[in-house]
Amino acid sequence: NPLKIVIEQGTLPQNVNFAIRGSLAQIFLEANGVAFQVRQPAVALSASEVAEATSSMVIPVECIQ
User: Fold this and answer.
1) What is the C-alpha to C-alpha distance for residues 38 and 52, in angstroms, rounded to an integer?
2) What is the pLDDT of residues 11-58, one digit of tens each?
3) φ and ψ of 59, to 5 deg
4) CB contact at 8 A, 13 and 2
5) How far apart are CA 53 and CA 41, in angstroms?
6) Residue 36: phi, psi to the nearest 5?
7) What is the phi/psi pair of residue 49, to 5°?
8) Contact present, 26 and 36 (Cβ < 8 Å)
9) 13/51 Cα distance (integer angstroms)
10) Which residue from 11, 27, 48, 65 has the least number of CB within 10 angstroms?
């Protein structure tokens, strides 16, 4: 709730996105015994196709001060 944040903290919340290199993700997954597959797409995907294909892979993270 942006209004609640403004009232409580005096600032508007911003969209914050984090990304890491695929190679670092691979190292992390291997170190933690998580099975994964590395594939190259057969064809280039549009931004909307990527968004649709990955929407179930996005996890919201909330940081509270």
Assistant:
1) 19
2) 877 776 778 888 999 999 999 999 998 888 788 889 999 888 888 887
3) -120, 120
4) yes
5) 12
6) -155, 165
7) -65, -40
8) yes
9) 23
10) 65
- Is the CB of residue 38 less than 8 Å from the CB of residue 26? yes
Q: Which of residues 62 and 52 earns the better pLDDT score?
A: 52
Both tokens assigned to 37: 């597959």
The string of DSSP codes covering the chain is -HHHHHHHHSS----------HHHHHHHHHHTT--------SS---HHHHHHHHGGG--------
Are 63 and 53 in contact by the 8 Å Cβ rule? The answer is: no
Task: Report the alpha-carbon distance of residue 44 to residue 22 in Å, rounded.
Answer: 18
Q: Which amino acid is at 16?
A: V
**Sign of the torsion angle spanned by Cα atoms 53, 55, 30, 35:** negative
Instruction: Report residue 18 as tokens.
Output: 């984090």
